[in-house]
Structures are given as C-alpha cells and as structure tokens.
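PROTEIN DESIGN WORKSHEET
SECTION A - STRUCTURE
LENGTH: 307
TOKENS:
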C-alpha cells in the first residue's frame, strides 16, 4: 500500500471527463495544482477516493469499444489495477453492462465494503475493498423491474447514500425510476417517491417512474434527504417516506448538481438549467444557494463565466 504523498489537510479534487481522469490538489483551496491526467482518452464517469484503510483511488472506465470496467490505484493514479472479479451481470440475468455510473465507499465503520451503481440499473457490492464484486440480486429482482424505463441518459443507478447511524439502511437513486430504500441491508427494497412529480407521465405522482438526478443525505440528520429531480428540488425529513418541493423561487425545476454544506444543515447548493436545451437559463452561469433549507434561494455569480 502506497503511503499518502499529500500533507494532512490537502483538498483533493477528482474530475472525470470523456478524455480521462484529472486530479487537482490544494493546500488552501485557492491555488490548485494539477496532479495528473490519468486513463487518457477513456470516458471516466466517476472518481472516488477511499481513505478508510489507506488511500485507494477508484475510477469508472467506460470505454466505448472495449466495454466498461472499474479500475483502482493505491498510488494516486501512477499505476492502475483491475478487480479480480469485476462488475459484470451473472449469466441468467439477461442483462449486459452498459456503463458504471458511480462507486461509493461504504460506511466509515466498515472499511472493506464498497458499492457501485450501473446501467442497466443495478447495485453491485464488494466486501474486500473492490477486489471482487457481486450483484445485489434482491434489488435486481424487484417485482417492479419489468416496468422500469430509462431516462435520457439511460437506466442508470447513479446515487448511493448510507445511514451512518444504521448500517442496514441505505438509499439509491435511479433514473427514471426514483428513490428506493432498504432497511435490512439490501434484502428488501421499498419505493419512496411520495409527492415527487413525474410531469412527463399521464399520472403525475406515481409510485415509481420519477426521474431523480441527484440524491444526498444530510450529514447532520439521517432522516433528512435532498434530491434534484427532473421535476423539482425536494426535501424529506422522514427518510424518504414523503417529500416536500423546495423549488420556491428557483427559476427552473430541472437540474443535475446538488451539494450540501457539511457544517451547516440548512445550507445547500444547486445548479438549475433549461430542461429542454440543457444549458443555463440566461447568458450567466449561476449557482443557487439556500441557507434555510429551501425556503428561499440566492443567486451566486461572482467569478462564474458568462455565455
């Protein structure tokens, strides 16, 4: 295992692009240094750094011609390895892997477990730090699965969040299925989409079929979740049992990015856009911030580009 080559307190940013994975580091979050262009020419949908048992960097390599695979590095990208048993659908499922969307290290008290979300929507689990992977068959065999439909980006499981106080509870976000929760470690799964809209369907509030774009759990309260949806920005204060639309004065319900302030439970950020053109609403790129859990949003544009 390679020792960390970054001093304590260094901020490390991973940027996955169609041309590979870029790493940036900063000691003060003002000046940033490029640490490398890794997996050059390969579409990297997601990068994750697992520091629970020493630093291990993961990247989802979704190469067009040679297929999707997961890679990991113990020296910050200088060398890469592939899992001994990678992320692939077992024979008999009738499914073929299209893309690996996300890799998430598991709870802090379980240093060997990781999860991965893929297209077509499924959850894979590793209990040995990413060396071998297995399909969560209970989610894969959910009775509603034959009725699941893809969003514009595919039938992708893109968000995975854990309850830090209860290792048996977790949530996943799937486009265009919605949010699902397990309370028994992945043996059974429940749809939790009450009061989230699906304006593109005949029934506006279905049990499932919503197009969630991003799902986050509050670091301050495991009952509080937020989601950026195709049709709104929502909050739940009861683990997803029902949702409240907090779009309020946002100029659009549509967007993808969402981030929470780890120090302030009422502060979060979103970027909303034109849902048809998939671009910013005006000639100014804008981030919106709320400091009261969505009661009101403020435009932030200083330092952001126009056009």
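SECTION B - SEQUENCE
RESIDUE ASSIGNMENT:
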């Amino acid at each position: 295992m390679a020792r960390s080559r970054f001093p304590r307190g260094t901020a490390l940013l991973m940027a996955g692009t169609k041309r590979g994975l870029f790493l940036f580091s900063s000691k003060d979050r003002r000046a940033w240094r490029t640490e490398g262009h890794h997996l050059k020419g390969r579409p990297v949908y997601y990068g994750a750094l697992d520091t629970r048992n020493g630093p291990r960097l993961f990247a989802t390599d979704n190469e067009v011609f040679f297929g999707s695979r997961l890679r990991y590095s113990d020296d910050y990208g200088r060398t890469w390895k592939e899992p001994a048993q990678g992320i692939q659908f077992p024979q008999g499922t009738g499914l073929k892997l299209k893309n690996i969307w996300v890799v998430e290290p598991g709870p802090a008290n379980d240093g060997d477990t990781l999860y991965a979300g893929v297209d077509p929507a499924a959850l894979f689990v590793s209990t040995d730090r990413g060396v071998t992977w297995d399909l969560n068959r209970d989610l894969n065999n959910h009775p509603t699965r034959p009725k699941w439909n893809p969003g514009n980006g595919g039938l992708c499981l893109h968000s995975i969040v854990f309850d830090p106080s209860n290792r048996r509870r977790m949530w996943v976000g799937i486009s265009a299925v919605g949010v699902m929760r397990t309370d028994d470690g992945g043996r059974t799964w429940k749809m939790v989409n009450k009061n989230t809209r699906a304006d593109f369907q005949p029934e506006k509030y279905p049990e499932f079929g919503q197009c969630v774009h991003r799902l986050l759990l509050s670091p301050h309260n495991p009952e509080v979740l937020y989601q950026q949806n195709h049709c709104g920005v929502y909050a739940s204060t009861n683990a997803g049992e029902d949702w409240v639309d907090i779009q309020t004065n946002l100029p659009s319900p549509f967007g993808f990015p969402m981030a929470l302030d780890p120090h302030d439970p009422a502060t979060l950020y979103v970027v909303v856009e034109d849902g048809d053109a998939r671009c910013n609403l005006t000639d100014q790129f804008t981030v919106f911030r709320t400091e009261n859990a969505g009661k009101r949003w403020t435009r932030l544009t200083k330092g952001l580009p126009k056009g």
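SECTION C - NOTES
The longest helix spans residues 137-140.
The radius of gyration is 19 Å.
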